Amino acid sequence: MEQDQLRTRAWVLHPDIKSDRNRRPAGPALAEGVALAAALPDLDVIGSEVVPLPKPHAGTLFGSGKIAEIAARLAGEDIDLVLIDGVVTPVQQRNLEKEWSVKLLDRTGLILEIFSDRARTKEGVLQVEMAALSYQRTRLVRAWTHLERQRGGLGFVGGPGETQIEADRRAIDDQLVRLRRQLDKVIKTRTLHRAARAKIPYPIVALVGYTNAGKSTLFNRLTGADVMAEDMLFATLDPTMRRVVLPDGPEVILSDTVGFISDLPTELVAAFRATLEEVLGADLIVHVRDISHAETEAQARDVEAILTSLGVDQDRPRIELWNKLDLLPDEAANAARTRAAREPGVFAISALTGEGLDPLLAEIALAVQGVRHETVLHLDFAAGKQRAWLFRQDIVQSEAQTETGFDITVLWTARQEAQFGAL
Questions:
Q1: Domain check: are 219 and 261 in the same one?
Q2: Do residue 138 and residue 52 come from a single domain?
């Protein structure tokens, strides 16, 4: 009983704004909002509802009648926290909290809470803290409604003091600078690790996809790892990498990444850019889709948009996986298998049961071998360092000694070619 009393009673609202050209279907959007709330361990979602709106009200988001109606519902259910699945301005947040006598979080605030709860690596923790401070900086009006409050001067020596908001904003900026310095150190360390990995002659295969698409389940099945894989949004935050030996011999590094989501807060896209650099450096991108989800097409578009915003070029080799066949009715699953078989680079699978993984692995092997290309090099006898490096990389196909040195045929990736050029 005491445990239940410690949990926060939450109510989820999805504003269905008719004037928003980019608005998502209300039912699936509300379901995603509830799933986001469920991703925080200390919340109990007591209820949820779609709130139709012709257009948002500037100061309160909702109209006065709707605010009063919701207030009665929240009071009757003894709600502590309202989660609004959308954008709420600082002024709207302050006014609604006052009207409803509850704490309020918008979509960005909720995602930041989840990321803060889940981040495990030092880099992840720093990035979340920076994103949260950037978000908080824009919402200081919530805490300081008395804008005329002054401190730091009496008014007759050195002019008027600074307002409380200015002081708090400056404190946040100072903290951001400190965090940026710490993060730069961590990123330098990761860059060294990435450089060390780049010397390993294995192509990198990055799993990307909408959150809860099944990437971690697939990663665990292919690698034998034990990455957290739950039916929950953002179960994986910190990137994980493992070596995988494909059936016909080639080895790859498989990378599991943070899931994407529609309307991902800009603060988080910026904060996690460094983490997602694993995707930028990948030889092959595997886009995992939850084909059983009602909004799977929209989710796929969101993932592609975020990949583009991160700078992933369109000609990067890609494979698309239609995952979670096991959740589809037999007829729909068969239709998905048939459609996938007709489309190049698309595979229908179930990461949970293992269905469809053998042809997928064969395709990955083919794709990464295609990433490699053959080159004939001539090295003179003095180039012992370069010759030894080629053999250490295990990419030498043949070698013939000539009067002036060695003719060596290598099968390598563009990355290895660039590394060789820098020796």
A1: yes
A2: no
* pLDDT at position 383: 92
Could you tell me if 160 and 136 are in contact, meaning their C-beta atoms sit under 8 angstroms apart? no
Q: At residue 250, what are phi and psi to the nearest 5 degrees? A: -65, 145
> What's the domain range around 87?
2-115
In a domain, 195, yes or no: no
Distance between CA atoms of 349 and 341, rounded to whole angstroms? 11
Q: Which two tokens stand for residue 204?
A: 């990198």
Per-residue confidence (pLDDT) for residue 198, from 0 to 100: 55
The pLDDT of residue 230: 55
* β strands within 309-422, DSSP E: 318-323, 346-348, 373-380, 396-401, 405-412
Residue 260 pairs in a beta bridge with 210
Closest CA to 79 of 43, 27, 32, 34: 43
Same domain, yes or no: 276 and 238: yes
In this predicted structure, what is the pLDDT of residue 122? 75
Q: How many CB atoms lie within 10 A of CB 4?
A: 8
- Write phi, then psi, for 405 (nearest 5 degrees): 165, -130
Q: Is 168 helix (H, G, I), strand (E, B) or coil?
A: helix
Cβ atoms of residues 45 and 37 within 8 Å:
yes
Same domain, 211 and 304: yes
> Would you state the pLDDT for residue 270?
61
- Walk along the chain (423 residues) in steps of 10 and give the mean pLDDT of each run: 66 94 88 88 92 93 95 95 92 93 90 78 77 78 40 36 67 82 75 59 84 89 68 56 77 81 68 64 90 92 84 83 96 96 95 94 84 86 92 86 93 80 85
Output the pLDDT for position 160: 44
213 neighbors 320 (Cβ within 8 angstroms): no
Using alpha carbons, select from 37, 331, 267, 330 the residue that is nearest to residue 130: 267
For residue 99, is it within any domain? Answer: yes
Q: Could you tell me the two tokens for 221?
A: 């099945």
Q: In CATH, what number is assigned to the domain containing residue 205? A: 3.40.50.300
Predicted pLDDT at 250: 72
Is residue 196 a part of any domain in this protein? no
Q: Are residues 54 and 154 in the same domain?
A: no
Question: Does residue 229 sit in the same domain as residue 315?
Answer: yes
Report the relative pairing of strands 251-256 and 284-290 from DSSP bridges: unpaired
Q: Does a structural domain hold residue 329?
A: yes
